[in-house]
Write a structure and sequence with these properties.
The complex is a heterodimer of chains A (about 290) and B (about 290). Chain A has about 290 residues and is mainly alpha-helical. Chain A contains eleven helices and no strands. In chain B, helix 5 crosses helix 6. Classes of the chains: A mainly alpha (about 290), B alpha/beta (about 290). The structure holds adenosine-5'-diphosphate and magnesium ion.
């Protein structure tokens, strides 16, 4: 490191003479508040998606992307408008969202309950964990035919598929979160007179929350995926059905509309998790980028 | 709490009968009965068949400030954990007050609770915020009551941890090298704080430290631990606040450093810390049958 670099980094390296004799290049530390106006975060976050759409439109307009392979954004907006106007899209979204919600809630309930059982007690761990670890390596998409045979072709197999994906992710992360709680804090809690439930409530569960949040992110992503798979097999409504139908009629615009809806819902889910994390994990100072 | 009363009969001359008689009484009774805050006899703790505590005998009177010195790894923290009730895989007799509080070397605050909620954590009922604020004021930290623990400085976190111990109004305050991680200046402030709090509260204090000067500044009595036992004890019969320049203080310091096996200009003592106490404690060794396993 040269003397100049070191000075720029705010340090004076050993051996560089400081004082009347030596000439040391000094640099000013610029206060952050000195930087005037910055672009709001949400605008910056929108740059990527908007840019993508613009590039896509330019490619479509220039004939690089033929309309029968991929419809242009403008066409897609028009198609989306039509689908919304005749009520197809809202009803499909309503059905799909409901499936995700029910699957998510029931899967979360099962996953978290199992994680608590095996995370909090050694007996529970012995009884539950091996079983879950074994089942989790089964590719759940391969279970669809079985679910249909077991549960019929109604809502049950689709919701079950979502629930299974959600439950595994939450189980793994909540369990790991519980077991990752600092033993020293548990000990401190004990010395403060907390009983078993006090420890769980004030020490173990809050400590497992970061892990649970990670689990929730994965669970949401899995829920959408499972929804697509579930609805493309044997469904007569919902977003997946809409896509399947569009495929049969070579309507790439409808397919893309559905994909865009998925993307939007994904963005919404991410926003919800971010908000939850900001509320629940505000005690945790983490690296937020520079 | 005059320093003059802090001596007690040497281990060898103390009859063992009264100790046995006290076993039946509950911990709290022992405290009320004879003004005794801690009574430990024949305490053995093994880790993988290695005796870290080997027949510890220790009495602390109510309101007494005792410092426990010893080399790193000699079992100070282990003894403190036993006294706090966190470690019960022991043999021997241990009587402690029901109301006791620990401040660990690391503050161990729950990072997900604001400072004041940390302070009242574990108190019975639904404690009011003012309860926490009173304790925080005592340690000069009331202005940080709403902070997240991870935003506190080392000294602040340590004081919050002390407030959390004090709010329990303990009869026995156990401090495990609470100033170890603090810088020299903050440590001096923290030591004064503990001295002040002790004077006002009048609870018995067991301060584990490896700092001879800290022990001599604060304690009525200084114990030296070695080979799993209390190998030596010195009453510090000097007026408070202690004067570091006092020749008696310096002499005590030299003596203790000698006990700890640190060669000093004078020292005078041999480095065999064991010589002082009779082998009586050793007789109480229990066979490896581990009767006290719970
Ligand atoms: N949980 C444990 N398992 C095995 N050995 C332990 C455990 N806790 C402490 N020890 C050992 O006991 C000895 C005393 O430890 P400790 O009481 O922490 O020392 P210190 O006097 O420095 O506080 C050390 O040798 C340490 O390695
Ligand atoms: Mg220690």
């Amino acid at each position: 490191m040269s003397g100049e670099q070191a000075a720029a980094a705010g340090r004076v390296p050993a051996g560089v003479p400081v004082g009347p004799g030596g000439a040391v290049a000094l640099s000013r530390v610029v206060p952050v508040s000195g930087r005037r106006w910055t672009v709001p975060r949400w605008v910056r976050r929108a740059v990527g998606p908007v840019g993508l759409v613009v590039v896509w439109q330019v490619l479509s307009g220039g004939g690089v992307l033929p309309a029968d392979l991929l419809a242009s954004p403008v066409d897609i907006a028009r198609t989306a408008g039509g689908l919304v106007a005749d009520g197809t899209l809202p009803s499909a979204m309503g059905v799909s969202l409901q499936r995700v919600a029910v699957g998510l809630v029931s899967g979360a309930a099962v996953g978290i309950a199992l994680a608590l059982v095996s995370g909090l007690s050694r007996l529970g761990e012995d009884l539950v964990d091996a079983t879950v670890q074994m089942l989790r390596s089964i590719p759940w998409v391969g279970v669809i035919p079985l679910f249909i045979i077991w549960l019929g072709i109604g809502e049950a197999p689709k919701i079950a598929l979502i629930a299974v994906g959600v439950a595994f992710h939450l189980y793994l992360n909540v369990y790991a979160g519980i077991r990752g709680v600092d033993a020293q804090l548990v000990e401190a809690g004990t010395s403060l007179g907390l009983g078993r439930w006090g420890l769980i409530r004030h020490v173990v569960l809050p400590g497992a929350l970061p892990g649970a949040m990670t689990g929730l992110r994965y669970a949401l992503a899995t829920a959408w995926l499972a929804l697509v798979f579930g609805e493309q097999v044997n469904a007569d409504d919902g977003l997946g059905f809409l896509m399947n139908q569009a495929r049969e009629f070579f309507r790439t615009d409808v397919i893309v509309v559905c994909l865009v809806v998925y993307a939007m819902l994904g963005l919404l889910a991410d926003f919800l998790v971010r908000t939850l994390e900001r509320l629940l994990l505000q005690w945790r100072p983490t690296f937020t980028g520079q | 709490m005059t320093p003059g009363t802090s001596t007690r009969p040497p281990e060898s001359s103390r009859p063992s009968e009264p100790v046995a008689a006290a076993t039946a009484a509950g911990a709290a009774d022992a405290q009320e009965g004879g003004g005794v805050a801690v009574r430990v006899d024949g305490l053995v703790r093994e880790f993988d068949r290695r005796r870290v505590l080997d027949g510890v005998r220790l009495d602390i009177r109510a309101g007494e400030f005792v410092a426990l010195l010893g080399r790193s790894g000699c079992g100070k923290s282990t003894l403190l954990r036993v006294l706090s009730g966190l470690d019960r895989e022991i043999e021997g007799e241990v009587l402690v007050p029901r109301r006791r509080a620990v401040a660990f070397q690391a503050p161990r605050l729950m990072p997900w609770k604001r400072v004041w909620r940390n302070v009242v954590l574990g108190l019975p009922g639904r404690p009011e915020r003012v309860v926490a604020e009173r304790a925080l004021t005592e340690v000069g930290l009331d202005h940080r009551a709403d902070a997240w623990p991870k935003t506190l400085s080392g000294g602040e976190a340590q004081r919050a941890s002390l407030a959390r111990a004090l709010v329990r109004d303990p009869d026995l305050l156990l401090l495990d090298e609470p100033f170890g991680a603090l810088d020299a200046l903050t440590r001096i402030t923290a030591q004064r704080l503990v001295a002040e709090v002790w004077r006002e509260r009048g609870c018995a204090v067991l301060l584990v430290t490896h700092d001879v000067e800290e022990a001599l500044l604060l304690a009525d009595r200084v114990l030296v631990m070695a080979d799993g036992r209390i190998a030596h004890e010195t009453a510090v019969e000097l007026p408070r606040p202690r004067d570091v320049g006092d020749p008696r203080w310096t002499a005590l310091r030299a003596q203790l450093l000698g006990r700890l096996g640190v060669a000093e200009a004078d020292g005078g003592a041999d480095s065999h810390v064991d010589g002082d106490v009779d082998g009586g404690a050793g007789v109480r060794r229990t066979p490896d049958g581990r009767g006290a396993d719970r």
